[in-house]
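Reviewers of the previous submission asked for a worked example of the structure-prediction workflow described in the proposal, so we include one complete record here. The input consisted solely of the amino acid sequence. No template or homolog information was supplied to the procedure at any stage.
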Amino acid sequence: MPVIIRSATPADLPAILDITNEAILHTTAIYDYAPRSMAAQEAWWQDKQATGMPVIVAELEGQTIGFGSYGRFRPKEGYKYSVEHSIYLAAHYRGQGIGSTLLRELMALAVAQGLHTMVAGIDAANESSIAFHKKYGFVEVGRLPQVGFKFERWLDLVFLQKIL
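From that input alone, the workflow returned the following structure tokens.
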């Protein structure tokens, strides 16, 4: 059965929360320390809905196995055509091409919304995510050394950008 990419619904929030919390607890993809609550995930959802920013999911055999979204890169009005995106997959579905499908859909949605550029903020040690983004035309535009701290070590943040 093929993976289906579709707009998320409130029914997807528990799976999105599980995927997010796994990334928080076991990776440096999210620089938070503590798992999020359902209330926090619902607030995130409401913000996306209020600002017209998409949340999409990857579904396989009726199960939500990944999601992607974007939001304004920075809050000032002059940044309104730039977004920063996120894509997360359940751990056992990574490396199977599902992230590529989510990224292509996010880029298409951004173009349809008249956006100009998409930014990715990635932990510098996550070489696979950096290579993944470069495969889709993202270029490294900045590196901020030791701006994050997690798992008892300093983390560098890499920014990649794609002009849509």
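The beta strands are 4-7, 55-60, 63-72, 82-89, 117-123, 139-150, 153-163. We consider this example representative of the routine output the project will generate in years two and three.
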